[in-house]
Amino acid sequence: MRLYPDLYGRRFGWMLADLIMLAWLYLWVQAGLWVNNLVLQLDALAQGVINAGRTFDSWILSFDQGIPNGVPYLSDFLHHTAQALKTHSGDSLISAGQAGSRGVHMLALILGIMAAAIPILFAVVIYLPRRLRLIADMRGVHITLRRALARPELAAQMLEILAGRAIYTLPYNRLLAYSQNPAEDWYLRRFEPLARAELERHGLTVERYFGTRPALEA
């Protein structure tokens, strides 16, 4: 598959465009990760609530384990008190903190994806169709020429076809950049300049397919 044109100016231009696009994608991916990490700092609040609940639970457990047994009335009273405290334990704080932590992680993920995806999608929608169209054009012309030129006797007819496409499809100012008199060249069957105009529109060169010919060197 051909990815870049034969013409050095256009090849350099598309290579530079590809590098700029890759740099753009990389920068916005990094920006998305930065946003994700920034929002994740809020998780410290949720973790603080969770730790507070666990600390409260550990206090109740220590209190219950420290109650002396065998003391009339006092031991039973303190054990009942510990059981009552367990009904108001830190489990609710832990559950709330865990829910908050999940929410922070989800928010960080969504904001990170949005920060990266919107500019990346905008660039891809603009750039990618043009890039794929260039590759498809070059591939189509390349396959057509290779199949035709597999039979050398078709070289002249292929030049005529390319010249005809240039005559009928290219703007006049583009034709005049390759031929001072396109109609005269067509009438005298000087197809090489017009074929060059058609191939270079797709970023390809006549020499790659037809070789260097005297008519092309003029």
Average of pLDDT:
83
| DSSP strand content | under 5%
How far the N terminus sits from the C terminus, by CA atoms, comes to 32 Å
Helix content range: over 70%
Form type: rod-shaped
Class based on secondary structure composition and strand pairing: mainly alpha
Radius of gyration: 37 Å
| Number of strand segments | 0
Total DSSP helices: 10
List the helices and strands and how they pair.
Blueprint: H1 8-40, H2 43-65, H3 74-87, H4 91-149, H5 155-169, H6 172-176, H7 182-187, H8 192-201, H9 206-210, H10 214-217
Helix pairs in contact: 1-4, 2-3, 2-4, 5-8
Would you kindly provide a written description of the structure presented here, covering whatever features stand out?
Mean pLDDT is 83; it is low at 214-218. The longest helix has 59 residues, at 91-149. The chain is mostly helical. It has ten helices and no strands. It is rod-shaped, with a radius of gyration of 37 Å.
What descriptors fit this protein?
single chain; mainly alpha; 218 residues
What's the short version?
The chain is mostly helical and 218 residues long. The protein contains ten helices and no strands.
